[in-house]
Structure formats: structure tokens, C-alpha cells
Amino acid sequence: MSSIYEFLERRENKDIWREAVDQTDWRLLNPVDRSRLDRLIPAVSYPSRSILINRMVTHRPTLATIIAEDAEVPPSRPQMILNEELLGNCKIGKKYQWNERDQKQLLELQQGNLSQSLKQAIEDYFFGTISDLVPAIYDKSMRFAMEVALTGACDFTDPISKAKFSISYSVTAGHIPSALTGANLWSAPTTATPLANLEAHAETVYNTIGKFPDSISMHRTQLRQVAATSEAKIAWLTRTGGSGTTSQDLTGVFLSDSMVRELISERVNPATGAEVIINDAKYSEELANGTISDKFFLAVGANTGYYFFGWDGYIERGFVPTIENRLASGIYVVNGEKTNDVPHRYWTTAVANFIPLVRDPRYIAARKVV
Length: 370
Known about the structure:
There is one protein chain. This protein has 370 residues and is of the alpha+beta class. It has helices at 4-9, 11-23, 35-40, 49-55, 84-87, 100-111, 116-131, 133-151, 194-209, 220-228, 230-239, 257-268; strands spanning 43-45, 57-58, 79-80, 91-98, 153-157, 164-168, 215-218, 275-278, 282-286, 292-296, 306-310, 315-320, 332-338, 345-358, 366-368. It contains 12 helices and 15 strands. Strands 1, 4, 12, 13 and 14 form a 5-stranded mixed β-sheet that branches. A 4-stranded mixed β-sheet has the order 8-7-11-15, sandwiched between helices. It has a two-stranded antiparallel sheet with strand order 2-3. The chain is globular, with a radius of gyration of 25 Å.
């Protein structure tokens, strides 16, 4: 009878789980569609660290310089915003320790006398467990990139390894305004002015980069908070020919999701309309004591009342080569065993080097509204 390690390393089995790993881009059990989020903040593999470093150089073309007769032309100096040493601190990994119950299942599989459906279920368990390691890497990278989108920085201490990761970008003044408070909170329906907030914020971004945001991402909770405000109800009544005044009774006025999306879209991008992305995707995080909690990607710690402006690909989850994979790019998955001790131990590990990549920090724009 072969061990779990020998079973997984057989050529025919290795081809199966490697294909499953290659085809897995997000958690198969996640009920929220992550495809839009993955386009907004894509995962990109770089064949070398040098290429990623070059992408981190901020180059903004400027006007030519007047040169005196016989004088040298002064060089322009692109600003390096990340150095290579930081990449060594961005290794992320996930390890699954196969247990005695797993070994018993494998023995049942090898002894035969099983129905085809049961045999397939056991094989799916082993290969599916391996393929789930890759989404764990992608989810971690998305969690870091999302915090950069919301705050321009990420300062994280892993709850299990206690290892720390920290990165910070220089955010343009006004692109992450101070958090709303008191009567201005979007959760205060009679006094909040979310549409005015969004319009002013989008105009600030436009005055910096010369274009309005392509999209805005928020939780559905924030969308419905906007719908409940007197400001939004009056705006909708006014644009549809009603008597949109602050003195009228707005108690019975209901705005559907599509109505609110339309109002927000116009305020964020008056030129072409901004896509309103509802981002309620979650990830599962294991703590040091073994408990597992589900958390929103669009959050900073326990605070979920944020929105952020976006352009597809303006933030990347950049993966660079790992030493474990002989300096090849992407996520590396490997099986291991330790048989010189009792009990024997078998495991499967996924590992990658990653960095949240923002080529132009001027595009980072977000706000806490609740």
C-alpha cells in the first residue's frame, strides 16, 4: 500500500491535481461572484523581480527643459517607490497536513471493492483539497490589495505565524478624505448627503488626473443607505419631474437598487457614468486558536463602511518567482513527507511571493462613510 505522498506524486495523479490547481482562480465554494473584483484588481505573474520593480517606477512625462548653449541636458528622474528588498518580506503560503483519517481513506481506495461513485468522491477529496490551497493564496493577496485600495497602505500581522507585512503608497491630498462623522454619516438618512460627498470626491480626483473614476465599489449596505437618504429621494423626484423639495413628506418614497445606482453613477462620472460595483465577497481566516471567521474583503479591520473609486487593473496583485520553484513565477505547490518518525507525516504546501502593485498612487481614492 502506498502512502499519501506516493499516491499524490504518481504521474497520472500529479497531472490531475496540477490541472485542478491551474484552473482554480477563486474559492469554488464562495457564493459571491468574484469575477468582477478579479478584473478590477487582477493577479499578474511576473517572470522576474526586475520586471516588477520596473513597473513600480513612477514615470510622469514632463515638459522639456531649456538648455543653455553648450550645456548638458539634465536627466529626468523617475521616482522609485519600492525597492527589491521589500519583496523578500511578501512570501505567503498555505500548508495542509494530511491526517490519519486521510490515510485510512486512501487505504480504502487502494483495497478496492468500492463503488465507482465512492472511489470518485475520495479522489475528489484529495485533489480538491490541493486545489483549494491556491485560492487561499489568491484570497490573501486580494485582502492585502483591497486594504491598499481603501487606505493607500497595508500593515498586517498574520494571526498564525505572527509575521508582519507592511507597505505604504504616497496618496494624493484629498483622494482619501477624512472619515465622515456625526450627522454626515451615510447611516443618518435625514442629514447625510452621500451624492454630494461622491460628486465632490470625484471632482477632486478629476482635477488631479484629468478623468473621472470608471467605477465605484461599495457594499450593498452602503447602497441601501444612500437610497434611504432624503437627499437621494429628492434627487430622484427632481430628475423624474416630481416636486423634489426638502419640505415634502418623503416617508413613502422608495428607491430601488437600479435607481440608486443611476444616481451614484452620474455623480461619480458625469461624462460617461461610473459602473457601480457591489462588493460583498468574503474570505475565511483561521486564527491561532483554530477558530475560523468570515470577513469582507472590502474592509479595514472590522470596519466595512467604505467605498473606493477604481479603474480596471489600476492595482495589481503581482506575483514574482519563488526560490522553492527554482525562481519560476506564480504559485508553487509541492507535496512532502516525513517517515523517519511515528506517526508518519504527509503534507501539501502552496507558496508564492507577492506584492500589491500600484503604478500610479494618484489613482488610489476611497473614503470611510459609516
